[in-house]
Design a protein that fits this description.
about 140 residues, mainly alpha, 6 helices
């Protein structure tokens, strides 16, 4: 399946929201998304980009030079989401009230290839099965 660069970035954003949703579902009563260190998550994504010096220094994070790497664009999308959530938390927002399905649905309208969202789970499960979880980091 041919995937355009911007779709990889949007899928990274969707992936970040799905991670947040899955984490919050696994929490016990004492755990909360309000305790998440979002700037740390932004930094983790930055470190996974092949050439982090090619990134803009501030949000919204973009590549200063052309980068068609699916891997890097996924991490770029995740960086932007974690940054937004960190800003929201800093302003006193309740992270446990994030409406992930709404956000994912909103982002899906930005995809050039709408079939990507429908095949999201199959795609990432297939990558995990073939290459292991480390490839999804």
């Amino acid at each position: 399946m041919e995937v355009v660069t911007t779709d990889w970035m949007v899928m990274g954003m969707i992936h970040a929201y799905k991670i947040i949703q899955k984490a919050s579902q696994a929490f016990d009563e004492e755990e909360s998304l309000n305790d998440v260190d979002f700037p740390y998550l932004v930094e983790l994504q930055r470190r996974d980009i092949e050439n982090p010096s090619s990134l803009s220094a501030e949000f919204p994070y973009v590549f200063k030079e052309k980068n068609t790497s699916a891997h890097d664009n996924m991490h770029l999308g995740m960086m932007n989401v974690f940054n937004l959530l960190g800003e929201q938390k800093e302003k006193g927002g309740d992270m446990d009230g994030i409406d992930v399905p709404f956000l994912i649905e909103s982002l899906s309208g930005e995809l050039e290839n709408a079939d990507l969202l429908e095949s999201y789970d199959d795609f990432f499960v297939d990558v995990e099965r073939r290459e292991g979880l480390e490839e999804l980091r």
